[in-house]
Design a protein that fits this description.
The complex is a heterodimer of chains A (163) and B (818).
Chain A lengths: L1 E6 L2 E6 L6 H8 L18 E4 L2 E4 L12 E3 L12 H8 L9 H14 L5 H8 L10 H10 L10 E2 L3
Parallel strand pairs in A: 1-5
Antiparallel strand pairs in A: 1-2, 3-4, 3-5
Helix pairs in contact in A: 2-5, 3-4
Chain B lengths: L21 H5 L15 E7 L5 E7 L1 H5 L3 E6 L6 E2 L6 E2 L5 E2 L5 E7 L2 H9 L2 E6 L39 E9 L2 H6 L3 E9 L11 E6 L5 E5 L4 H12 L6 E5 L15 H10 L5 E4 L2 H6 L6 E10 L5 E13 L5 H11 L8 E10 L13 H19 L3 H8 L20 H11 L7 H10 L2 E11 L8 E8 L5 E5 L8 H13 L6 E3 L3 E2 L14 H28 L6 E3 L3 E4 L2 E7 H4 L1 E4 L5 E5 L1 E7 L20 E11 L6 E11 L6 H20 L30 E7 L21 H13 L10 H8 L35
Parallel strand pairs in B: 1-14, 12-13, 16-17, 20-21, 30-31
Antiparallel strand pairs in B: 1-7, 2-6, 2-8, 3-7, 4-5, 9-17, 10-15, 11-12, 11-14, 13-22, 15-16, 18-29, 19-20, 19-28, 23-24, 24-25, 26-27, 29-30
Helix pairs in contact in B: 9-10, 9-17, 13-14, 16-17
Classes of the chains: A alpha+beta (163), B alpha+beta (818).
């Protein structure tokens, strides 16, 4: 079928098979490679994108369902070559290791901040629960979200023995 | 190379600089193999065995071949190649016999993924199902079916391994130190226990993926999500009998590895499909389920420990027997066995020690390297055992550890003397203990106990690990200057998220004295263009490649100084430099810019000298030796990284439910090159260790089908599962041959998390846990004094991976114990 949607504000119109997922449509047909496939079953969150202002697992949405939708991906997060506040906080707090979960994680973090502009640690954990990260152990991601929302007064950091 | 590591003298080393490739990863711009689509590319799928052990009677591929869009169909009989890291025991596709559930028996390449999937469904395989050998303890019995009847005919690395033909033993590693019988005879207490853990999946977020193009004249290009591009090339060429310069392996960003992407996996099959499809590129990406079954996991372990202790708490003798479940193929498991064998006692001095470590074939998905390389598994045993022994002899577990811990002058079980600069395990223990207020409950904790009715317990566990690698492991770094005075650094070590790229950038900038932004270390690897590195494994990258970077930077400076000396008509010894220029020390105005030297200096009349500036650094592990095959004596350790975890757990004494309140981890890292990234490795590894400790593990039915190959049934930690409080502490005892004193700490944070948790739970409610993971129901069962639940194979007569005679089909005396 014919699908017409916007991705990060740009209009796209393509023919797409009925059974193609939004994730594969974005990646294979439109070239938005930031959203990743980690499980293909809606469990890991690596494919998280915004659809009409709310996050979805794009591996669980058919491209056809996104007809007429406004999609936002990680590619739209930085503007004019400037990292967003959230991306800068991820950078500062070492919230990135292999990077494979990062796109989805930042999308979910943005959604979390939209709902809770000053989230508590518990709210952050709840908000990011659907995004697996096997590298960081989440701690520095949580700190990045606190930082991005002006709640990290002092960087916790590595402690040194005897100091 | 220690260099000057006085913080006052350092600009970049020891600083929390940003990850070099972070912007690409933050913006979705970083390219992974899973993102790549090549012109004309085909998609592969495999037909997998539904049985754990069966004879392949017939494979009918005719329907699949006729499906429009199918370009290649392969079965094992067409592929006369054997693969293997240390024991060459694996076919590219199963031939005649399948040896584990999910093993590939046929493969297809087609125009689209959908066609490939359809084609695989059209392949018919006739099997004669055979009874599998699932329990690795049962596999030792004399009448056990042989997983590899041809074991005696396989090639293997003879210097390091000892397979026993006619059995299921792929390797036996032996260590002998002192006189163990005498040690036991002199002991006041002898305590013997057995500890077990199941197989576990690595779960990199990017599943294994490769694209291979078999070009003309056997020029082969492989794009792979591999940790070790040079090892992929090496093993590929060994299997196909090709010269190394025919095969080019390219690796862009890698979405996590943790050891699971260290060897060679799907590349040979994908290559054969490309060749059969006339040289078109073929992409194969494992599904998440295939990641659990087709690709390897971490081996299960049964660890028996018998310890003799003197009245005053000194360990006098220890007999250690490790039974590693390799699964269907030896892969890394034989080397896990070897490395665990020589580290088996933990960071303690044992005067009289004996280790027998077996790698045992079974009909299950096979084991490979996984962060910690056996040490996560056997530290579960040794560090639970230290607590249990301490309880038996009436000593505090921390005090018992302190009494027996390695210290300068101690001798390891392979005969290596520990020095002042080896590292300080006592400091790690003390820091972890202090951070959790070990031995006492605070007023707040007591109040919490009163309020919740739950019990709070505190546990400690120590750890050690040396890199498991060939004794002569070498690596290289190359620094090239561009015409604008910036430099590019190439190393063979892969960036898989651990942050080594940034550490090397810091090291090179430090030694060159250049601003950080002038130094770029390339993330992507290309075996045709990058200098050699053996593998990205073992926590050896920082030391070996870091040293190569220091040597390359020094070589580079010499290269620049030699040309500058001619231009400035000065002795190179009288020159100095900054980020912009080289100058004469006593006439600083006599200078020449790096930019003008970068690709060859031109005098005013046009005459040129020098040529492009380059620096090369080569480094090889030094002083290491093969271990004696009978006694295990020798020097296997590039370095020892010591550490300890302290855990506070809160346990419900009625239900066994528990919460981890705090984890404090201390590691002797020598020198934290990048503190934020050291903390990242430490927290990430610790949480991965908590996953192993709390919930992860393979569960099979009685026929050997894996029951939980998904995130629904095999949980990994999420953000909600992390402890309320996490504290990471660096101890810095400089490693004399480490770059700026640093040593590796990539794997160590994952080790000993499980026993620290088990010890904390026991301290809280007395549950004596012998099997990990520790699920809530396991705590409850232990509290009811019932058999610990360890039914990781369900419905079997054996019913267990323990070797208690009562739960085994075969009595111990019928087992093969050479």
């Amino acid at each position: 079928m014919r699908v017409k949607l916007t991705v990060n504000g740009e209009l796209y119109e393509r023919d797409v098979k009925d059974n193609k997922t939004l994730l594969r449509f974005l990646r294979e047909d439109l070239g938005f490679l930031g959203p990743k496939e980690g499980c293909g079953a809606g469990e890991c969150g690596a494919c998280t994108v915004f659809m009409n202002g709310k996050t979805v697992n794009s591996c669980m949405v058919l491209a056809a369902e996104a007809d007429g939708a406004e999609i936002e991906t990680i590619e739209g997060e930085s503007k004019d070559g400037m990292l967003s506040k959230l991306q800068q906080a991820f950078d500062r707090n070492h919230a990135v290791q292999c990077g494979f979960c990062t796109s989805g994680m930042i999308m979910s973090a943005r959604e979390l901040i939209r709902i809770h502009p000053k989230p508590t640690v518990e709210e952050i954990k709840e908000g990011l629960e659907g995004n697996f990260c096997r590298c960081t152990g989440y701690k520095q991601i949580i700190e990045a979200v606190l930082d991005a929302t002006g709640q990290l007064d002092e960087k916790e950091g590595l402690k040194y023995a005897g100091k | 190379m220690l260099e000057n590591n006085d913080p006052a003298a350092l600009r970049y080393v020891g600083q929390d600089v940003r990850r070099e490739e972070v912007v690409d990863k933050l913006t979705g711009a970083a390219t992974y193999v899973s993102d790549m689509i090549l012109p004309g590319m085909l998609y592969a799928q495999v037909k997998k065995s539904p049985h754990a052990r069966a004879l392949i009677k017939k494979i009918d591929t005719s329907k699949a071949e006729k499906l429009p869009g199918v370009r290649a169909v392969l079965t094992g009989e067409e592929l006369p190649y054997k693969l293997g890291l240390y024991v060459v025991d694996k076919d590219i596709l199963a031939k005649k016999m399948v040896r584990h559930y999910g093993e590939a028996v046929a493969a297809v390449a087609a125009d689209t993924l959908e066609i490939a999937k359809k084609a695989v469904d059209l392949i018919d395989v006739d099997y004669e199902v055979l009874p599998p050998v699932l329990n690795h303890m049962d596999a030792l019995a004399k009448d056990a079916p042989l997983v590899h009847p041809d074991l005696g005919k396989y090639d293997y690395v003879q210097a390091a391994f000892t397979p026993i033909p006619g059995t299921n033993i792929a390797n036996l590693t032996k260590i002998r130190k002192g006189d163990i019988e005498k040690g036991f005879a002199e002991s006041a207490y002898i305590i013997e226990r057995e500890y077990t853990n199941p197989s576990v999946q690595h779960v990199p977020m990017e599943t294994h993926v490769a694209i291979v193009q078999w070009g003309k004249e056997d020029n082969i290009t492989i794009w792979s999500s591999a940790q070790s591009p040079f090892t992929v090339r090496n093993l590929f060429c060994y299997a196909f009998k090709l010269p190394l310069n025919k095969v080019r392996v390219l690796v862009p960003h890698v979405g996590g590895g943790f050891g699971g992407k260290a060897g060679i996996h799907i590349e040979p099959l994908t290559a054969c499909l490309s060749r059969k499809a006339g040289g078109r590129p073929v992409k194969f990406q494992a599904s998440r389920e295939e990641e659990f079954t087709l690709l390897p996991c971490r081996s299960a372990l049964t660890y028996k420990i018998k310890t003799g202790v003197a009245e005053d708490g000194r360990i006098l003798a220890q007999k250690m027997e490790m039974f590693w479940d390799a699964g269907a193929y030896a892969d890394y498991a034989v080397n896990v066995t070897r490395a665990s064998g020589y580290s088996a006692s933990g960071p303690y001095e044992i005067p009289n020690a004996s280790v027998d470590a077996y790698t045992i074939y079974t009909n299950k998905p096979y084991g490979t390297a996984y962060r910690g390389f056996g040490h996560v598994e056997f530290h579960w045993g040794i560090e639970r055992h230290m607590d249990l022994v301490a309880r038996v002899i009436g000593m505090d577990p921390l005090e018992f550890r302190r009494k027996n811990a390695m210290r300068p002058g101690s001798i390891t079980i392979t005969g290596e003397e520990i020095m002042e600069n080896t590292g300080n395990v006592l400091a790690c223990l003390d820091e972890a203990a202090k951070a959790i207020n070990y031995g006492n409950l605070t007023e707040a904790e007591k109040e919490r106990e009163r309020k919740t009715g739950r019990k709070i317990g505190k546990g400690i566990a120590a750890l050690h690990k040396a890199p498991a690698m060939p004794s002569f492991t070498g690596t290289m770094a190359v620094i090239k200057m561009n015409s604008d005075g910036t430099v590019n650094v190439n190393v063979g070590l892969m960036e898989i998220g651990q942050g080594s790229t940034t550490a090397f950038q810091q090291i090179v900038a430090e030694v060159l004295g250049f601003p950080l932004e002038k130094v770029k270390v390339t993330v992507e690897k290309d075996t045709d263009r990058d200098p050699y590195d053996w593998q990205t494994v073992a926590s050896k990258g920082l030391i070996l490649t870091g040293n190569a970077c220091i040597l390359a930077a020094k070589d580079f400076l010499k290269c620049g100084y030699d040309v500058a000396a001619q231009v400035l008509r000065a002795n190179p010894a009288d020159l100095a430099h900054d980020g912009d220029k080289i100058y004469v020390k006593h006439h600083p105005k006599a200078s020449v810019t790096w930019e003008s030297l970068a690709v060859g200096y031109a005098f005013p009349n046009g005459n040129g000298i020098g040529g492009p500036l380059i620096g090369v650094g080569r480094y090889i592990a030094q002083g290491l030796s093969y271990l004696n095959k009978e006694t295990g004596q020798g020097n296997p350790a590039l370095d020892w990284t010591y550490g300890a975890h302290g855990i506070i757990a809160e346990v419900d004494p009625e239900t066994g439910e528990y919460t981890v309140l705090k984890v404090a981890s201390a590691f002797d890292v020598g020198k934290a090159i990048n503190p934020g990234m050291v903390r990242g490795q430490a927290v990430g590894g610790m949480i991965q260790g908590l996953g192993t400790a709390m919930c992860e593990g393979y569960i099979y039915d009685g026929e050997g089908h894996l029951l939980n190959p998904s995130f629904t049934d095999n949980k990994i930690p999420t953000a909600k599962d992390i402890p309320e409080e996490i504290e990471i502490i660096a101890v810095e005892t400089p490693q004399l041959d480490g770059p700026f004193g640093a040593r590796g700490v990539g794997e160590h944070p994952m080790i000993s998390v499980a026993p620290a948790l088990g010890n904390a739970i026991q301290a809280a409610v007395g549950a004596e846990l012998m099997h990990m993971p520790i699920r809530f129901e396991d705590v409850w069962r232990a509290l009811q004094k019932k058999e610990p639940i360890d039914n990781w194979i369900t419905k079997t007569p054996a019913g267990s991976c323990r070797s208690d005679p009562a739960t085994r089909r075969h009595s111990p005396d019928s087992a093969i114990m050479p």
